[in-house]
Specification:
Order of helices and strands: HHHEHEEEHEHHEEEHE
CATH architecture: 3-Layer(aba) Sandwich
Helix content: 25-40%
Largest sheet: 7 strands, mixed
Shape: globular
Strand order of the largest sheet: 3-2-1-4-5-9-6
CATH class: Alpha Beta
CATH topology: Rossmann fold
Number of domains: 1
Radius of gyration: 17 Å
Number of helices: 8
Number of strands: 9
Structural class: alpha/beta
Distance between the termini: 34 Å
């Protein structure tokens, strides 16, 4: 197994921990923005769009997509399944996202890729593979931590590294390909996507212990926000 994939599996094997992480206001807002963009664009193709939740981990996002009328499919190498007696109505496809995805070309109306691209050695290969399995005008929504948040721009000015490039951090050290808004847009363009939507969850001011999160600033200046939420439609 690829050592990068193995390192990520070791850090994200606890389903309860992942679900708790997604339930925090910071990340639930990111997921809400992403699913809104995805459903809005995917419904231009179908009233019940077929949507893949890549790197699903738990069924949190897939459930949200299903609640909005999408036919969701979970895709993950180490996804967390419920016990035998639990209800399970969302299909699960096991797949390594660093390899070709197990879908035929043009099969999907939409793809959600939440907090994935920063973990991949070659994000361009991944985005190109996403394009292959999307139907013409299918939509891809990517969320990823912002390398150039407002607080990280300030940190850089005073000689400190942005948080996303801290090799000592317990989980940020796994973020090997951090993005800014402009670099993510460029990657979408290179891989055959036309950007149709961009949002961010919060602009955060302050340190680790005490900070203030502003939703208003994130709406006005999304390129300064904590998470980049970018939607692109397959071109050609």
């Amino acid at each position: 197994m690829d050592p990068i994939v193995a390192a990520n599996l070791r850090s994200y094997t606890d389903g309860t921990q992942v679900a708790d992480y997604l339930a925090t206001p910071y990340h639930s807002r990111r997921v809400a923005d992403a699913t809104d963009l995805l459903i809005q664009e995917a419904r231009r193709r179908s009233t019940r769009p077929l949507v893949a939740d890549l790197g699903a981990g738990t069924r949190t996002v897939s459930e949200k997509l299903s609640q909005h009328g999408a036919r969701a499919v979970m895709v993950d190498l180490g996804a967390h399944q419920p016990g035998r007696t639990a209800r399970w109505h969302i299909p699960l496809v096991r797949a390594d996202l660093t390899r070709p995805l197990p879908f035929r070309s043009g099969a999907l109306d939409g793809i959600f890729a939440g907090e994935i691209v920063e973990h991949l050695f070659d994000p361009v290969v991944f985005l190109t593979e996403c394009r292959r399995i999307l139907a013409p005008d299918g939509v891809l929504v990517v969320t990823t931590p912002n390398l150039a948040t407002l607080q990280d721009r300030i940190r850089f000015l005073i000689g400190r590294s942005p948080r996303q490039v801290d090799p000592q951090h317990p989980y940020l050290k796994l973020h090997i390909r951090p993005f800014t808004y402009s670099s993510l847009v460029r990657a979408f363009d290179v891989c055959g996507f036309r950007v149709v939507g961009f949002r961010s969850n919060y602009v955060v001011l302050g340190g680790e212990a005490r900070n203030v999160s502003s939703r208003v600033l994130a709406r006005v200046f999304p390129s300064l926000g904590g998470s980049l939420v970018l939607a692109g439609v397959r071109t050609g």
